[in-house]
């Protein structure tokens, strides 16, 4: 099976490609049949496409029908393998239930007869330019597909050449980043150092770091589910049980960080990545550019973070003589986040994109926290109580992560949360860690990955310090 075609090589052209002008807003790409060189399936944005044996007249139908006994009724949906017979991406078995992000030129093979090439509708025309890119490309193929973009960094899809494992690569422009007006409180060196010290199922792992004169390349686990903010925007407020599982995982990550005297300082839905855009996914905390280690006796004093989720004491830190702040600033951010994902509204403003700092501070300090029935009908008193306790103005009185884990909202479903965590998070962590461990064997990064699933006693012993409730 050939690997991904070179990006500058001519792919098989299609006789039935979508109309570029008419369909540019709705089409993500299409599959080209390598036998006929014709488009056989158009993939639309925000719409799954099923490949399988079911015909359109069946109760469960397929968008692309392949009539062969070894093809499952619902063999795969773009981009998740649903079959027991196997779907191959660039020669590698995806595995039932596993997801990948397709890139321009990717090869998809279903059994032996059916071979397709994926063509990306909006393939990037300009390649990333780095005179020393050869150092990076010896080990990785950096693809033009951009997963995210910031002021002085972007995140692209990458493939580890030896293992064919898909990764996300955060590419930092060191020159633009080094300018004080651009840094915004972030510290890329500190981000890497912190991520290399933490090892937790709900924190994004660093796989490799390569530095050139101009750029820093941070290779991270690739997550195909997008971020929590996108998930809420596309689906609306989360059902309370689904939100509770997201919050439970976030609390596990924060407990681990705070036990290590690390504050994230930029907790928000955009910085929580999902393994899949489905109910009850594994959630991973990412973007540690503003994270800092702190001493219990010394408060932090830098104003940083996203002000819609920023604690009042962080606002105050920019003013001379401000008292500073500690890890409970993360708890305020968590309270705002819970409010947002349960209601799709913000607790202190109706349009925080246009809100200025002074106005936001005034609304926070007005103590006017309300739960309008229009958005909060049907949401439990226990959920509202937890939010109120996390949004207490005085950081000394505000609930900590430990307090939140002991809240009635969490405790009344503690057994279910532990069971769901074992089934969803722990199992996925073991599988993904195996893939990343294969990459680590070919890098100089020394991130620790779990070797095998331990016994229940080992889970309790090793995870007790992480705050993961792995007991029966």
UniProtKB/TrEMBL annotation:
Protein residues bound to ATP: 170
Keyword entries, A-Z: ATP-binding, Kinase, Nucleotide-binding, Serine/threonine-protein kinase, Transferase
Gene Ontology molecular function: ATP binding; protein serine/threonine kinase activity
Region (Disordered): 1-20, 443-463
Keyword Nucleus on entry: no
Annotated CDD domains: STKc_CAMK
Residue ranges of every copy of the FHA domain listed in the record: 49-94
Annotated Protein kinase domain residues: 141-410
Top-level taxon of origin: Eukaryota
The keyword Transmembrane belongs to this UniProt entry's keyword annotation: no
Family, per entry: Belongs to the protein kinase superfamily. CAMK Ser/Thr protein kinase family. CHEK2 subfamily.
Name of the protein: Checkpoint kinase 2
Gene that encodes the chain: CHEK2
